[in-house]
Amino acid sequence: MDKVLITKHFAIYGKVQGVGFRYFTWKKAKQWQITGWVKNLADNSVQVLAQGSHENLTLFKQWLEQGPPQSRVELVLELNEPQFTEQIYSQFSIKY
Prior knowledge:
With 96 residues, the chain is of the alpha+beta class. It contains two helices and five strands.
């Protein structure tokens, strides 16, 4: 049986730019078979749109709350966005 696909949109605040946050997020997404994107915003936060199984997205969110070694995550918000149940991304990418 196929796992149910869910979509989550996160906003991450703290010391999350200039510390490799997007690169490490991309690596973790690949590790947990998550598709979507990560990008820096002008307010020094990072946003992530992620699609995957509930189990993998739970692990991914836990990692986002810690971040890579040089970061200091202060807050991870789960944004209220329309939930896609069909896969809309074929891979995980870093947006510029």
